[in-house]
Records
---
Amino acid sequence: MKQIYLDYASTTPVEEGVVKKMTDFMSFDGNFGNPASRSHSFGWKADEAVEEARNNLATLIGCDPREIIWTSGATESDNLAIKGSARFYKNKGNHLVTSKIEHKAVLDPFRQLEDEGFEVTYLEPNSSGEITVEQVSQAINEKTILVSLMHMNNELGTITDIDSIGELTRSKGIIFHVDAAQSIGKIPINMSSNKIDLLSISAHKFYGPKGVGALFVRRKPRVRLEPLFHGGGHERGFRSGTLATHQIVGLGEAARIAHQQMDDDFEKLENLKRIFWEEVKDIEEIYVNGDSKNKFPGILNISFNFVEGESLIMALKSIAVSSGSACTSASLEPSYVLRALGRKDELAHSSIRFSFGRYTTEQDVKETALLVKSSVERLREISPLWEMYQDGVDLDKIEWA
Amino acid sequence: MAYSQKVVDKFEETLNNPEKASVGRWKPGDEDFHRVGTGIVGAPACGDVMKLQIKCQNIDGENRIVDARFKTYGCGSAIASSGQLIDMLKGKTLEEAQAISNQEIVDILELPAIKIHCSVLAEEAIHRAIDDFKSLRNND
């Protein structure tokens, strides 16, 4: 059966050209040298490739290449940024600010810092999934040393106003970290005009390889971090460990392509989202999660009331999507992001995230929309909740056993 | 979620031919409704709700389940477990049905450990439906 991939927010395929470039940096006939080897051409060539990649990424985000640290991915970048800055500046204060809709790679380091004695404020989004500059302004105090917020939410596609928040944090001398794993290469970001101090980047979300990422660390004003890894002092001492040349080359090449294609990609995604939404919008009792004006068109999160998300995924078996339903998670908890929006738990259970990307076609989204319509209808036929709703029963007034 | 082929088959059977899979309901006003016991278990906030109805008939002095219908809101294994339960119920006396254990459903469908609660829900549903049927009889 032909599978339609609509889970680009989870990961993306690597561009063929990128794969080719990467394989040139692995075998004996290729350029396998250690970029840290200063004594021979094998090392010099590898170093040259790593620096070219650094330049490509710097061009994409508008920064000085020396502000980029290679890491193993956004999880490491988040850990290094959050734990590294909090621990380095702990004598300045012990209060940190983040939000309830952050990725686990951000929330977990904060939990760890709480164990180390830091106090953390977790901001709640409004019902559209937005964290505002006003909320940040109210949350910070004279002991605040770090604010960490995501640029684009991975479940909702909502975009945070990082420029305004950066102005605020800079004026107060607070470090501002942004997890940009979902947004890099998809929407513009300009580090030379914004006031973000630390920015986490992941390659596999923008058609690069898995297992590699980067952390932007601002030079002016200088941001300092306590490293997580100690060793050979690579990456200006921020991140020891031999550089994974082929991975970094892959990230750099993906960044170069993203820089060229970003506008076209974005326009295409807007069109796909419009086509998809036209097809599904008339289904009764559906709710768009994260219904913000400032939103990325590549992610559409919809709750289909009275239908459980995992069963819908099983019915859509030729379509690869993900759900906020508890049944698809190992913990049996529904999505904490959807719950943070103040939606009822059942709407979290009923949610599906459709995420479109560079290889998605109009035919793909049309086919998916049709299948969604018929599957929702069929699952509602077997749903006792739909039956009660049709009978006019108020489900909130029932005492469930 | 790595489901067994049995769960997938049962789920698809139900979805593709709901009538044959005994999806449906008896409602007040239907002929014989007084012989139908209903059990509803689970909660929307937990992600699964199972509604089971059994139609009983006194045959040779014993109440037997002659027909059953269900509707289920829940994950694939909850829907498959309901369908499996239905298959097991028909023709059984109330006593025999009462004795059905969730483990039988787990074994037949090869449910993964994390989905065992779906089978527990099915067991609870039959207990509720039997209790409901008995309470109706007491009211006669």
---
Amino acid sequence: MTMTPIAIPKRTQSARLENWSRAFYRFRQSWLSIVGLAIVVLLVVIAIFAPWIVPYPEHVVGGTNTAARFQAPSTDAWFGTNALGQDMFSLVLVGSQVSLFSGLAVVFIAIVVGTAVGAIAGYFGGWVDEVLMRITDLLLTIPSLILAMAVAAALGTGVWNMIIAISITWWPAYARLVRGEVIVKKEEQFVVAAHALGANWLRILGKHILPNIVSPIVIKASLDMGFAILTVASLGFVGIGVKPPTPEWGTLLSGARSYMPDYWWTAVAPGIAIFLAVLAFNLLGDGLRDVLDPKARR
Amino acid sequence: MSLEIQNVSKIFPGPRQGFFGRGEGFTALDDVSLSIRKGASFGLVGESGSGKTTLTRCILRLESLSAGNILFNGSDIHKLTLLQMRRLRSRLQIVFQDPYASLDPRMTVHDIVAEPLVIHGDVVNMTASRRTERVMELLLQVGLRSEHMFRYPHEFSGGQRQRIGIARALAVNPEFLILDEPTSALDVSVQADVLNLLHRLQVELGLTYFFISHDLGVIRYICDDVAVIYRGKVVEQGPVAAIFDNPQSDYTRMLLDAMPDPDPDRSPFRKIAAV
């Protein structure tokens, strides 16, 4: 038999592209998701470019102007000034950096640790599962903010210590989610097929099971982002976390507490920032859930 | 003999009772002995729940045995080391019943068919571009076209998916193929295509088939030998012609009687009109 050389087709991404456009269509069905996405994008842009767009960059690194303290919002200082005469607008804008970065880092670490623990527990079962899930249960029984405060107090203040402290309380939820999904997928026929082909456990988990459970993890992550930002702010508020002069929404709010209600703008500006960030990430998460998990729609 | 199943039993443990006790187990396979000749097609017939799929899982060592041995070319599958077992898996492949569930929805056809080549890379030893050529060969061999290569399973019909499953099974040049009801999830018209493909591949590649089905017509069409299994026990086994023409056990006779007759004049639906 003569074999003419066969032309290998180009690796087209058309199917994938089509899926993306279909996903975006479903996302657009709810205008709230679009609002969420818009605010999140805006927040990210602000966080990245904040040091260059703020009107008083010197206030952000600790500069003060006591002559202009407690000025009400005006065209000069949009959100007013605080007890040290610093421009609240500049502080809040730059404060988004710490909040967004910590929120992302917490969720990222939680996903990595939680997925590893949950996947191994769910895949192997037996005593491995028992040991790992009892540790997880134990961490879930402790109120997360209290544990985070204890850890942060033990490690000392600082952005990274705060991130580690929150992550420790955060990963068990992911471990549980992933374990459940892995147990379901483990029985799927294509996983059995991979077994029969001779694939080892790392390949089965990494190539067949995990790619098929990305959706619930992404949905949970986007819904969690808002809560992570809130937790970061809470730790800042109680004084563990980022130290001044680095601006952070929780810390700013805590500093404004003693000047309420006379100088309300010092509290309202960071408060609204926290509110907007949490709301936006929740709306985005809802939208993503509609796209990735259509069965859960109302 | 290619595959020897000797006195295999499989008892699934019963529900937990109290702290240490267990309820009575379920006997899925009871003293099953079969021998499958090299290059032949061996059919296994039985109703749902009779232990057909458990037997395939035991052969693939996805399930441990309660008693008995399974010998493949003389070596006991359940006594091999993990490395030896991995080597053996490249010679013993399976095509699953449900072509919708047995292909990973997140992988392209290329990646699905190439996977055994990657897993057995230490034996096969192919570069990525050589693997792609091999995938192409396989797709053409099972009657798919080259432009199907980078699509996802959901873009195919049931029959096409089953062809993908067959291509995956053939990738590492196995000598023995377990076909776990490969056509039962397909349309009747597509069933014939897939059966003819399987027959052609057997002739071309000299494969041994272990063909599981509950469709007696399919078994008669493709198999040389057949065994009838009922509630985990082999009721009868022998050459297809002998069993179909002269069944010895009541259960086999019952199965044969339940087979629809292709002659439309003898259809029960016609009776009323004829009167």
---
Amino acid sequence: MNNKAYPGADDITRVKLKNGITVLCRSNFNSPSVVLRGNLPAGSLFDSEEKLGLADFTASMLMRGTEKNDFQSIYDGLESVGASFNFSANTFTSGFGGRALTEDLSLLMEMLSEGLRRPTFPTEHLERLRAQHLTGLAMRDQDTRDMAELIFDEMLYHDHPYRHTGDGTTETIGAITRDDLVAFHQKHYGPRDMVIALVGAIEADDAVKQVEEILGDWQNPEQPPKPTVDDMPPLEERTRRHHPIAGKSQTDLMMGFLGPKRLDDDYMAASLGNSILGRFGLMGRIGDSVREKSGLAYYAYSSLSAGRGPGAWYVSAGVNPANVEKAIDLIIKELENFIKEGVSEEELEDNKSNYIGSLPLSLESNGGVSGALLNIERYDLDLDYYRQYPDLIHAVTREDILAVAQKYIEIERLAIATAGA
Amino acid sequence: MTQKFTKTTLANGLTLLLKEIHSAPLISSWIWYRVGSRNEVPGKTGISHWVEHMQFKGTPKFPANVLDKAISREGGVWNAFTYLDFTTYYETMPADKIDLALQLESDRMQNSIFDPEEVASERTVVISEREGNENSPMFKLSEATQAAAFRIHPYHHKVIGDMADLKSMTRDDLYEHYKAYYAPNNAVMAIAGDFDTEKMLKRIEKLFGGIPAAPAPRQLSRPETEASGEMSLTVEGTGDTTYVQVCYHFPAATDPDFFPLSVLDSLLAGASSLNMFGGGISNKTSRLYKALVESELTVGMSGGAQATIDPYLYSIVMVIHPEKTPAEALAALDVEIARVQDEKVSTEEVARAVKQAKALFAYGSESITNQGFWMGYTEMFADYAWFENYLDNLAAVTPEDVQRVAKKYFKKKARVVGTYLPINEENINE
């Protein structure tokens, strides 16, 4: 495919407003709708130990009432025209996103501005949402997959901020007050380092103008600098924990180690290596061993979650409680083989071809393109990144993959989490 | 953007739908077979889904491992779904690579091996899939309500099948099912994307035209009789959360009442999306959300129906607020159902449902995979015209229609009320 079809410097508009907001836009008139997405640095890294879940709670309250509209009129406006919009918190940032028919874009713009700048945090909704969050946590306690992930993170990141999920706990969600929400919002929500991407049936000039109109005069002198996280050492020894949940017919297993950061030089080699290990075809080598050859699991795959801080590189599987040890052994065998033998030329070529060939599909929709634009901004990539992507992929060698495997995978330092009966 | 649409049938009975879309260099190819849990009898429940799994286990020409690697190598995405009325397989590929998917589908329509060793290995994979489902309280509850709602009709059981049958079915059972239902005259092929219709037609004719038609597969005819009273059931399990599922019998997709009911669904529980790829919208201004979640009787609610060949269900799921009881939530639900039966809804509310559907269609059209999905999916229970006329049919709905169908289908005496009651250790000690 002609690389020119991907977003690039000549069709992405990137404008930085005076108050620090970056606006990105790419037009697409194939469908009469627009996607609006973005984020600002107000994520859960700012949560204190006593108020874990505060960033998430704050974000989820922004559409519960603003100076201009109450909850029902906010959602009546959106849902009446089939539009959607929401705020949510991640680790580094709080994000927002929505879509509408182009004729209704002003609704999204207004929602964005009112939610960010003039939320009222109505007490009635605070308690309603608290009950919803607490029920969500009770459901999570019963979910073997969620709980395996939770204790995996606790083990891998023992004293690092990443040991927490952004959701909080029953105690911390119970302890959050309206004053906490108001204070978090006042301090952390501001225009500096905020990013907005607009993709769809809109001209770029118009998009920038609309953002300027609603957010160009926004200021928050209190806003702290963007948070950062430290690196951390791998586990000192292999660590294993089981979280019992009664009455479950399947146990979830999660095992892994620290991986690279997104901007590390060896990220692309790790990503391709991970694809060979547990993604390509039907869940890569892990899927082939645990599912195809042994019939032990419906799902068994590996993931690499590389971001700004030390990412996790892990294998997940759902197995019958009687087969847990068998599955762990098979996975360890695959990891050992991966460190020892690396990958074959054929595997590498197949996976490179997959990465490059699947790009058109991932960039097909407005949602996909907006994700790509935010990715470029988040990691300060070149606007032509997606056009250069095939070259970046081609540059990875078998030796690179063997090197990352040996650098990151230490069988004797694995974190192994299981949750279930 | 011009979108050329063609529908035709090959001499062997294969229905073919083609839609040229040139917005991205992609093609999505779908093959649909008219077989699902609707065609299954006790002892063989889950057989359609298991056959779907076996379709990834290879033919002499495309052995198991070769096949998925070949698709992935080209940057393609592929998957399959088995549901009540259908089993479907799709590949979305870079446009210049689609021929691989077409060859594969033509081959596995007739040449899958069903190697006994692969069958044995896949048995435990499917059992593992079911065990994973069983971990979820809502799976256990919906399995029980579905079984209560259908005593006669095969919609009675879950698509994945009963554990007893997953343990006892044989390789020959699976192969026989495959041979009975996988034939061009029982299939629909739908292709959307960046191709030339004439060339594509020729290629399909070449790859599929020579596959002989099979005798028309035997159809079960076990219509459900009218329910003679409300049924209530309880499922007990671990956890702290109570769920209630209320199911009303709902007409087939081809019933003219389907459209006023879709409007009613929008009003009651929020607009349901027909998109498999492309998502939906929130439901926070729906009548039931206000009556249940905003009044803090539940912490969540959802509702919706499926477009099916035979009458199926309208299902409402309520996650009960920790300080409230299922009875309180059910009483509030009944008030809202009575309201749509007793009072006519406004024309504005009908217009709103139409606008919501229009937006959902626009979002769904961004994805070529979703466009391929729509064409084949609608052929399973109606035809593509059902989809093309959907918005017009919704727009023609009147407030009187909505009231009439509310009275006709949302009857207490024809519903099933299922409750998932959490039993934690404290309760057990009592």
